[in-house]
Protein backbone atom coordinates (compact mmCIF):
# COMPACT_ATOMS: atom_id res chain seq x y z
CA UNK A 1 0.00 0.00 0.00
CA UNK A 2 3.00 2.34 0.34
CA UNK A 3 5.16 0.88 -2.44
CA UNK A 4 6.29 3.36 -5.07
CA UNK A 5 6.40 0.88 -7.94
CA UNK A 6 3.47 -1.37 -7.07
CA UNK A 7 0.06 -0.20 -8.17
CA UNK A 8 -2.78 -1.88 -6.33
CA UNK A 9 -6.50 -1.37 -6.11
CA UNK A 10 -6.00 1.44 -3.56
CA UNK A 11 -3.49 3.35 -5.69
CA UNK A 12 -4.62 6.77 -6.88
CA UNK A 13 -2.82 8.60 -9.68
CA UNK A 14 -3.64 12.27 -10.34
CA UNK A 15 -2.23 14.87 -12.72
CA UNK A 16 -1.06 18.21 -11.36
CA UNK A 17 -3.01 21.04 -12.98
CA UNK A 18 -1.31 24.00 -11.29
CA UNK A 19 1.91 24.70 -9.40
CA UNK A 20 1.96 27.71 -7.07
CA UNK A 21 5.53 28.47 -5.98
CA UNK A 22 5.82 30.95 -3.13
CA UNK A 23 6.31 34.42 -4.66
CA UNK A 24 9.33 35.10 -2.43
CA UNK A 25 11.01 31.74 -3.00
CA UNK A 26 14.78 32.15 -3.22
CA UNK A 27 16.41 29.06 -4.72
CA UNK A 28 19.94 30.15 -3.77
CA UNK A 29 19.16 30.46 -0.07
CA UNK A 30 16.12 28.15 0.12
CA UNK A 31 13.99 30.90 1.61
CA UNK A 32 10.22 30.31 1.42
CA UNK A 33 10.92 26.84 0.00
CA UNK A 34 7.28 25.88 -0.41
CA UNK A 35 4.73 25.38 -3.17
CA UNK A 36 1.07 24.42 -3.40
CA UNK A 37 0.13 21.86 -6.05
CA UNK A 38 -3.41 21.74 -7.36
CA UNK A 39 -4.55 18.35 -8.63
CA UNK A 40 -6.57 18.02 -11.83
CA UNK A 41 -9.04 15.72 -10.06
CA UNK A 42 -9.82 15.19 -6.38
CA UNK A 43 -8.45 12.19 -4.51
CA UNK A 44 -10.71 9.75 -2.74
CA UNK A 45 -10.24 9.74 1.03
CA UNK A 46 -9.63 6.15 2.15
CA UNK A 47 -7.96 4.44 5.08
CA UNK A 48 -4.63 4.76 3.21
CA UNK A 49 -5.14 8.20 1.65
CA UNK A 50 -6.07 11.11 3.86
CA UNK A 51 -5.49 14.79 4.42
CA UNK A 52 -3.04 16.37 6.80
CA UNK A 53 -4.22 19.48 8.62
CA UNK A 54 -2.48 22.81 8.39
CA UNK A 55 -0.81 23.89 11.61
CA UNK A 56 -3.28 25.89 13.68
CA UNK A 57 -1.60 25.79 17.07
CA UNK A 58 0.83 28.42 18.34
CA UNK A 59 3.23 29.20 15.51
CA UNK A 60 6.22 29.90 17.79
CA UNK A 61 8.61 27.03 16.98
CA UNK A 62 10.16 27.33 20.46
CA UNK A 63 6.91 25.94 21.89
CA UNK A 64 7.56 22.53 20.31
CA UNK A 65 11.34 22.24 20.72
CA UNK A 66 12.19 18.70 21.71
CA UNK A 67 8.86 17.28 20.54
CA UNK A 68 9.02 14.35 18.13
CA UNK A 69 7.53 14.73 14.69
CA UNK A 70 7.27 12.11 11.96
CA UNK A 71 8.80 12.66 8.53
CA UNK A 72 8.14 10.43 5.53
CA UNK A 73 9.71 9.98 2.11
CA UNK A 74 10.86 7.74 -0.69
CA UNK A 75 14.46 9.02 -0.72
CA UNK A 76 17.69 7.07 -0.47
CA UNK A 77 18.29 4.70 2.44
CA UNK A 78 21.41 4.10 4.56
CA UNK A 79 22.77 1.78 1.82
CA UNK A 80 22.59 4.62 -0.72
CA UNK A 81 19.74 2.90 -2.54
CA UNK A 82 16.55 4.62 -3.64
CA UNK A 83 13.73 3.14 -1.60
CA UNK A 84 10.57 1.89 -3.24
CA UNK A 85 8.67 1.68 0.04
CA UNK A 86 7.61 4.74 1.98
CA UNK A 87 10.03 5.27 4.86
CA UNK A 88 9.42 7.20 8.05
CA UNK A 89 11.49 8.50 10.92
CA UNK A 90 10.77 10.35 14.11
CA UNK A 91 12.86 13.39 14.88
CA UNK A 92 12.72 16.20 17.44
CA UNK A 93 12.59 19.91 16.73
CA UNK A 94 15.98 21.39 17.66
CA UNK A 95 16.52 24.91 18.99
CA UNK A 96 18.11 27.40 16.61
CA UNK A 97 21.36 27.86 18.56
CA UNK A 98 22.03 24.13 18.79
CA UNK A 99 21.35 23.78 15.09
CA UNK A 100 23.56 26.69 14.02
CA UNK A 101 26.40 25.67 16.34
CA UNK A 102 26.35 22.14 14.91
CA UNK A 103 27.32 23.40 11.44
CA UNK A 104 27.82 27.17 11.36
CA UNK A 105 28.98 27.21 7.74
CA UNK A 106 25.67 25.84 6.52
CA UNK A 107 22.94 26.68 8.99
CA UNK A 108 24.01 30.25 9.76
CA UNK A 109 23.61 30.96 6.06
CA UNK A 110 20.22 29.30 5.58
CA UNK A 111 18.16 29.28 8.79
CA UNK A 112 15.60 32.10 9.05
CA UNK A 113 12.44 32.83 11.00
CA UNK A 114 10.63 30.97 8.18
CA UNK A 115 12.51 27.70 8.83
CA UNK A 116 13.68 25.45 11.65
CA UNK A 117 15.91 22.46 12.34
CA UNK A 118 14.97 18.98 13.43
CA UNK A 119 16.64 15.64 13.72
CA UNK A 120 19.07 13.48 15.56
CA UNK A 121 22.79 13.23 14.91
CA UNK A 122 22.80 9.44 15.17
CA UNK A 123 22.07 8.35 11.59
CA UNK A 124 18.29 8.78 11.81
CA UNK A 125 17.58 11.38 9.18
CA UNK A 126 16.14 12.24 5.81
CA UNK A 127 18.26 11.81 2.70
CA UNK A 128 18.50 12.71 -0.98
CA UNK A 129 15.06 12.38 -2.57
CA UNK A 130 13.15 13.25 0.61
CA UNK A 131 12.94 17.00 -0.12
CA UNK A 132 9.41 18.31 0.19
CA UNK A 133 8.41 15.53 2.56
CA UNK A 134 6.26 16.60 5.49
CA UNK A 135 7.19 16.69 9.16
CA UNK A 136 3.90 16.06 10.97
CA UNK A 137 2.84 16.11 14.61
CA UNK A 138 -0.26 14.74 16.30
CA UNK A 139 -2.63 17.51 17.35
CA UNK A 140 -2.56 17.82 21.11
CA UNK A 141 -5.25 15.74 22.73
CA UNK A 142 -5.60 13.26 19.85
CA UNK A 143 -4.05 9.82 19.76
CA UNK A 144 -4.50 6.28 18.51
CA UNK A 145 -6.82 5.70 15.56
CA UNK A 146 -8.37 9.15 16.11
CA UNK A 147 -5.08 11.02 15.78
CA UNK A 148 -5.35 14.25 13.83
CA UNK A 149 -2.06 15.01 12.10
CA UNK A 150 -0.82 18.56 11.51
CA UNK A 151 2.00 19.48 9.16
CA UNK A 152 4.65 21.78 10.59
CA UNK A 153 7.64 21.36 8.29
CA UNK A 154 8.74 20.47 4.77
CA UNK A 155 12.18 18.97 4.17
CA UNK A 156 14.26 21.76 2.64
CA UNK A 157 17.99 21.20 3.21
CA UNK A 158 19.95 18.17 4.30
CA UNK A 159 23.70 18.28 4.78
CA UNK A 160 25.87 16.47 2.24
CA UNK A 161 28.82 14.31 3.22
CA UNK A 162 32.18 16.01 2.76
CA UNK A 163 33.24 13.06 0.60
CA UNK A 164 30.41 13.54 -1.89
CA UNK A 165 26.89 14.73 -2.57
CA UNK A 166 25.19 12.03 -0.54
CA UNK A 167 23.38 12.90 2.71
CA UNK A 168 25.16 13.09 6.04
CA UNK A 169 22.74 11.47 8.47
CA UNK A 170 24.74 12.70 11.46
CA UNK A 171 23.61 16.28 10.77
CA UNK A 172 20.35 18.10 11.45
CA UNK A 173 17.84 18.83 8.67
CA UNK A 174 16.46 22.26 7.79
CA UNK A 175 12.69 22.42 7.35
CA UNK A 176 10.50 25.13 5.84
CA UNK A 177 8.11 26.21 8.60
CA UNK A 178 4.63 25.60 7.18
CA UNK A 179 3.03 27.47 10.09
CA UNK A 180 4.65 30.69 8.81
CA UNK A 181 3.01 30.17 5.40
CA UNK A 182 -0.55 29.20 6.38
CA UNK A 183 -2.07 32.54 5.28
CA UNK A 184 -0.46 32.22 1.84
CA UNK A 185 -1.66 28.60 1.49
CA UNK A 186 -5.20 29.52 2.55
CA UNK A 187 -5.28 32.42 0.06
CA UNK A 188 -4.51 29.99 -2.77
CA UNK A 189 -6.98 27.35 -1.63
CA UNK A 190 -9.77 29.83 -0.93
CA UNK A 191 -9.27 31.72 -4.21
CA UNK A 192 -10.35 28.60 -6.09
CA UNK A 193 -13.50 28.22 -4.00
CA UNK A 194 -14.90 31.70 -4.73
TrEMBL record:
InterPro entries in the record: CLIP_Serine_Protease, Peptidase_S1_PA, Peptidase_S1_PA_chymotrypsin, Peptidase_S1A, Trypsin_dom
Gene3D superfamilies: Trypsin-like serine proteases (2.40.10.10)
Domain Peptidase S1 intervals: 1-190
Pfam families in the cross-refs: Trypsin
Source superkingdom: Eukaryota
Entry protein name: Peptidase S1 domain-containing protein
Gene source species: Cryptolaemus montrouzieri
Amino acid sequence: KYALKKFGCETQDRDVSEINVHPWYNFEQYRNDIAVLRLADPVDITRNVGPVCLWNDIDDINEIEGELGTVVGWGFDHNKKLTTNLMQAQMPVVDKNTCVNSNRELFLQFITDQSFCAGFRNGTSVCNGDSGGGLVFPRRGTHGPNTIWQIRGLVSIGVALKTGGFCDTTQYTLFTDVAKHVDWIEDIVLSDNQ
